[in-house]
Write a structure and sequence with these properties.
The complex is a heterodimer of chains A (315) and B (492).
Chain A lengths: L1 H28 L4 H6 L5 H11 L5 H13 L13 H36 L4 H15 L2 H15 L15 H35 L2 H8 L4 H30 L2 H6 L5 H10 L3 H29 L8
Chain B lengths: L1 H20 L5 E6 L14 H7 L8 E3 L5 E3 L2 E6 L5 E6 L13 H12 L14 E8 L2 E6 L6 H4 L26 E7 L3 E6 L12 E6 L3 H9 L5 E2 L16 E16 L9 H10 L2 H9 L4 E2 L22 H10 L6 E7 L3 H16 L2 E7 L2 H10 L5 E6 L20 H12 L3 H17 L4 E13 L2 E2 L16 E2 L2
Parallel strand pairs in B: 1-10, 14-15, 14-16
Antiparallel strand pairs in B: 2-3, 4-5, 5-7, 6-7, 8-9, 9-10, 11-17, 12-16, 12-17, 13-17, 18-19
Helix pairs in contact in B: 6-8, 7-9, 11-12
Classes of the chains: A mainly alpha (315), B alpha+beta (492).
């Protein structure tokens, strides 16, 4: 187990270093000058050069990479070019929106998907299964921004239960803040739930065809007990994998939903930083996300061992 | 008798308190599409900075009014020497910055010297180029000496980039702006909103609003439900394509005004075959402005024939010079030896006027034999490739700076246009302060640009504002980029 952990850790570090190089190189290659972007069309070339110097953009490439990467190691993420505040402050402000949103969406998605998956697998091939999976197919197909707009018109414009968008901040109280995250969480959760339900169902169906399930049934265990105790546990591995991927996606891949609900989340921070060529923000936030994904993957790997004891003894 | 008086007085008092209990609301939430990168108008070109802070938090010596006129601001009056070179500004007294420090002539000298210094990163440094020296006569008087007379000097001092800042706070204005205006900055939740509150020690007429929040709504589709639900009460810059969804709703006012944004099909004048006048004229004849406005701007927007806003008093209508005429365009191409047409690229920045307009223009030019390859680019890419490196054939962009016809005389500007006759007019214009002469010169300048078909002049970008019908005092036009809230109030 220790060797397994060490190996995973080494891979994680290597991934981080490689990712930092790729991120840095890609942002160097794409055209666009943050100084020109700030000064606009009326500024002279000399002035742009002056600002480039002030921003430290004229230092040699290797020096800038080492300076940035060295900072990362001591958890110094640098200062934003456009906002001129530490990147970590920007991230902190956004994480308090993105992380709760991702967790609520993930919880919702799981709470919907697992029962639907169980229900469908249990009625495999019957009409109710077809209906449930048809609905899931629809959930995958409907674009989430459209679905989000429908939710807004129904719950914010017509029923006036929640605000149409925006985030008042946790300082405004837990309830108002949560209220503004409800619709985006639903809009994010449904397509994810649809995917998760389909994965749960097919994993369960596969497990239900195994010999030990027939044995369990043969020894007289009720169907429900077989489903919960034997089948679901064994079907968990693909489900956990998908959940891990979904969490990584929900943390930063929610730019469209953040736009529709004008939420100040991480996705919008990165998007805005890319359009403004606030390179240091893009680089540092991407690295943080890479780290988050690696950690989540590590946790998912470890959770395999929890659901499947056989994996614990493996190297 | 006395009793009656008492009763009347009591009734009047009751009425007065009664009305104040039902007083109009004093808070406002305004939707803006783009977040300012920071909050210092003297250190960045982003329109969003001025759209939050201009006239609200920061003030200049002069200011630009709702119809583009120059008004006194921190300078209550001024005199101009006979040679037009010395401006003596008399300043308001008793003015305080929001941090409690006094405003006086030293702050004016500091601000102007800072903006024109060698290490200045003021995005509109050109506004201060004519200044030779700034002298403090007494705390309420400043003398500005120019190197040469400049007709637009008072207008220039009204830009957001020329607002007066204090030495104590100049370096921290990006995060915590300190000005002299009727609103002071309260908070900025990044990515979400910027809140201003009424300043209690304002020197001028106090504002009606106690609190104004600028909320950032990047998605045009999200603006409509935000308005309908009442979360946001005003969108001064609304998406033209969404107007249909709210225009019949009596709760809202739709106000179509003019901007200073000349939307043009920019042409690289040095790159063959666009260096030939006939080719550029052919393009102008090939453009159907009405179809472009319908497709790119939901039918809103006024056609232009040169680089001047129809709302400007110097405007000359030259839209008749190149009517939509495919046969004429083909004939001109034939004269230029290009009867078989040619291929070129059209680089399009992100705004919808460019992306939608570009497709229509590509199809219109195809009708005369010019085959365009459309290349969508981001802003950063556009500034880098098109604007700085001039690596382009055609592009669409709206030049939103006010009174910017002089860009065609700038050396090395991305149009690659060079006409000494035009440069001469602009040079004279810069030195002229006589209003009538300025109008004549501006008229001539417009005519030359149209005759040379320097670019394809399309239309003036409209300002589409949508706000609560009970709201008064928001600007109808956008002579400069601003959301001036000083006269805004709720009725009933």
């Amino acid at each position: 187990m220790t060797a397994y952990l060490l190996k995973r850790l080494a891979i994680a570090v290597a991934t981080l270093v490689l990712a930092s190089m790729v991120v840095f190189a890609v942002l160097e290659i794409i055209p666009g000058d943050p100084a020109r972007l700030m000064l606009g069309m009326n500024a002279s070339a000399d002035q742009v050069e002056l600002l480039r110097n002030q921003m430290g953009l004229n230092a040699p490439l290797a020096w800038r990479y080492l300076h940035w990467a060295g900072g990362l190691m001591s958890l110094d993420f640098g200062r934003s070019y456009t906002y001129s505040v530490p990147v970590i402050d920007l991230v902190r402000e956004r994480v308090v929106v993105s992380l709760p949103l991702a967790l609520i969406a993930l919880a919702l998605s799981t709470l919907i998907a697992i029962p639907v998956g169980l229900f469908s697998a249990g009625r495999h091939g019957r009409a109710s299964d077809t209906v449930a999976m048809g609905a899931a197919q629809l959930g995958v197909a409907v674009p989430n921004f459209w679905f989000a707009l429908m939710l807004i018109y129904l719950f914010a414009v017509w029923l006036r239960l929640v605000p149409a968008g925006g985030f008042p901040g946790w300082g405004a109280g837990v309830w108002p803040a949560l209220k503004s995250l409800v619709l985006p969480a639903i809009a994010l959760a449904l397509p994810q739930a649809a995917i998760l339900a389909r994965v749960t169902r097919s994993a369960l169906i596969e497990v239900l065809n195994e010999d030990y399930i027939r044995t369990a049934r043969a020894k007289g265990l009720p169907y429900r007990a077989v489903l919960w105790r034997h089948a679901l546990r064994n079907a968990m591995i693909p489900v956990l994998t998908i959940l891990g991927l979904q969490f990584a996606f929900l943390l930063a891949g929610t730019i469209i939903i953040e736009n529709v609900f004008y939420l100040p989340g991480l996705g919008r921070l990165v998007f805005q930083a890319i359009t403004q060529r606030d390179l240091i923000v893009v680089e540092s936030v991407v690295m943080l996300l890479v780290a988050a994904v690696i950690i989540v993957n590590l946790l998912v790997d470890l959770s395999y061992a929890v659901v499947d004891p056989r994996l614990r003894s493996r190297p | 008798m006395k009793l009656w008086k008492t009763i009347l007085a009591a009734a009047a008092l009751a009425l007065a308190t009664g009305t104040s209990a039902f007083a109009a609301r004093t808070d406002l939430v305004i939707g803006i599409p783009l977040e300012p990168p920071h909050l210092d108008p003297t250190a960045g070109a982003a329109a969003a900075i001025d759209e939050v802070l201009y006239a609200n938090v920061f003030e200049g010596l002069t200011r630009i009014g709702p119809n583009g006129e120059v008004l006194p601001d921190l300078a209550e009056s001024w005199t101009i020497s006979d040679d037009g070179k010395v401006y003596t500004f008399k300043l308001h007294t008793g003015v305080k910055f929001h941090d409690g420090t006094d405003f006086n002539a030293d702050d004016v000298k500091f601000s102007l010297d800072r903006a024109r210094a060698d290490n200045s990163v003021n995005a509109q440094k050109g506004l201060f180029a004519a200044i030779d020296k700034v002298e403090v006569i007494d705390p309420a008087t400043v003398k500005v000496t120019l190197k040469n007379p400049q007709g637009s000097f008072l207008y220039n001092m009204g830009w957001g980039d020329a607002v007066i800042v204090a030495p104590e706070s100049a370096d921290t204005n990006k995060e915590k702006p300190i000005g002299t205006g009727p609103f002071k900055f309260q908070s900025w939740a990044k990515g979400s909103s910027i809140t201003l509150v009424k300043s209690d020690n304002y020197w001028g007429t106090p504002v009606s609003l106690d609190k104004a929040e600028f909320r950032i709504v990047p998605d045009a589709a999200a603006a409509v439900p935000a308005l309908l639900s009442g979360d946001i009460q005003a969108f001064p810059f609304f998406d033209p394509d969404s107007v249909a969804q709210v225009k019949d709703d009596p709760r809202f006012k739709v106000v179509i005004g003019a901007t200073e944004g000349e939307t043009i099909l920019s042409i690289n004048n040095k790159k063959p075959p666009f260096d030939k006048l006939q080719v550029r004229q052919a393009i102008s004849f090939a453009l159907d402005r009405k179809a472009i406005i319908d497709g790119a701007s939901a039918g809103l927007g006024v056609p232009i024939g040169s680089h001047m806003s129809p709302a400007n008093k110097a405007y000359v209508d030259l839209t008749g010079l190149y009517p939509h005429n495919v046969a004429k365009a083909k004939e001109l191409l034939k004269e230029a030896g290009l009867e078989n047409g040619f291929k070129a690229t059209l680089k399009l920045p992100p705004p919808s006027y460019a992306r939608l307009g570009g497709e229509i223009i590509a199809s219109e030019l195809r009708d005369v034999g010019i085959d365009l390859e459309i290349i969508p680019v981001e802003w950063a890419q556009w500034l880098d490739q098109v604007f700085t490196k001039k690596d382009y054939d055609l592009t669409i962009v709206s030049h939103t700076e006010p009174n910017d016809i002089d860009i065609y005389s700038r050396k090395d500007y991305y149009f690659n246009y060079d006409n000494p006759a035009f440069d001469k007019i602009i040079a004279e214009l810069n030195l002229t302060s006589d209003e009538a002469r300025r109008m004549t010169l501006l008229g001539e300048a417009q005519k030359i640009l149209a005759d040379d078909a320097v670019v394809g002049f399309l239309y003036e970008l409209p300002k589409v504002g949508v706000w609560d019908a009970k709201l008064q005092g928001l600007w109808e036009n956008a002579p400069i980029q601003a959301n001036d809230l000083t006269k805004v109030k709720w009725t009933d």
